[in-house]
Amino acid sequence: MPHATQHADVATAELDTALQGGPFHVALRAAIAARGLPLQRVQHHLSRYGVRVGVTSLSYWQQGARRPQRPESLRAVRALEEILQLPDESLIRLLAGTDEGTAPGRPAARSYRSFVEASGTLERLLGELDAAPDGGLHTLGHHEEVRIGPRRELLTRESHHIVRAHRDGVDRFLAVHHGDPGCAPERMAVRALENCRIGRVRLHHDTGILVAEMLFDTRLRAGDTFLFRYAVEDGTADVCHEFVRAFGTPGGQYALQVRFDQNALPVRCHRFTQHSPAAPRNSRQELRLSGRHHSVHLVEPRVRSGVVGIGWDWE
Question: Count H helices, E strands: the chain?
Answer without folding.
Answer: 7, 13
